[in-house]
Amino acid sequence: MIRRILYYIFIEDYVAKIVCFVIGCGLWFYVEVARVTQTSLNIPVEYIKKPANLYLKQGQARFVKITVRGRDEFLKFSTTGIKAEVNLANARGGDANYPLIFDARQLPERVEVASKPDTLTVGLEAGASKVVPVKVVTSGNPDAAFKLQKAGANPQQIEIDGPEAVVSSLQALDTEAVDIEGASKTITRKINLRIPDQVSTDKVRSVNVRIDFVPKTYSEEQQFDQISVRVQNLDAALNAALSDQTVQVQVQGESAAVKKLKPSDIYIYVNAEDTRYNSRTGSILPYANESGVPVKGRILNGSRKVQILSITPDRVNIRFSVKPEYAKKDP
């Protein structure tokens, strides 16, 4: 009985059975192997666990190419959310190769990684910080009868942190453009800053701006250099040393009045009324050194026809010291 069954399976009509077997193998090969293809994906790179005192150099790879394989119908999938990682936990400054981590579980079933880079070259540099002015950017033109007088921001300066090369190249932080098309009255609003990649502003993302306009009758402008800065309301017991003893002043006004203006007609000053000498303790209060003190000014003659547009620098540092005759002497 068993012999007849085996004969029927393997011997009887064996040619037809071999042909069927070959056809079946061919179909299986076509379905499982021949239809398997490869495709390349550009996936984003995320740099993780970077030391706080190091920053990525400019031009670092944002994407990496990997090759995946699978049957055609399985390769049609969204790459949203798929990423590779570079762990920088033990990184140091300079250029070095770091392992590229890719979790294949991000791929759909029946799709596998065919090839990927094992490492990625990453450049890191030390950080730096500095204080830069805020530059108000405008777009459009004011009313035909007016012209822009000045544009200022509050705060006027912001401390930035970031890669040393980026920070050193930044001379100012621009705002988003403020539309002044057809304007004739003062514009005040809150505007976002244009902050470059990798630059931190300690959560300051926007500033308050004020843009003033004047009639075009104020058509003449003139610049005065080396205008002395005076100290008002200085305590009689103190001396004051300024980081900048002279400034540059830009004025605007009616043509005849501006042409008559002399440097002696421009009064530039800082106010020291909040700093006092305590003779009992021998201390200067609140501080012996004041940073970022506003520089102010006014026109002494022809002030109704001429006004100050800008003072550069508009802030100075003051170092106070006690006059010898007032200094507290040890008993």
TrEMBL record:
It comes from the Bacteria. Gene3D superfamilies: 2.170.120.30, YbbR-like domain. PANTHER family: CDAA REGULATORY PROTEIN CDAR. This is YbbR family protein. It comes from Turneriella parva (strain ATCC BAA-1111 / DSM 21527 / NCTC 11395 / H) (Leptospira parva).
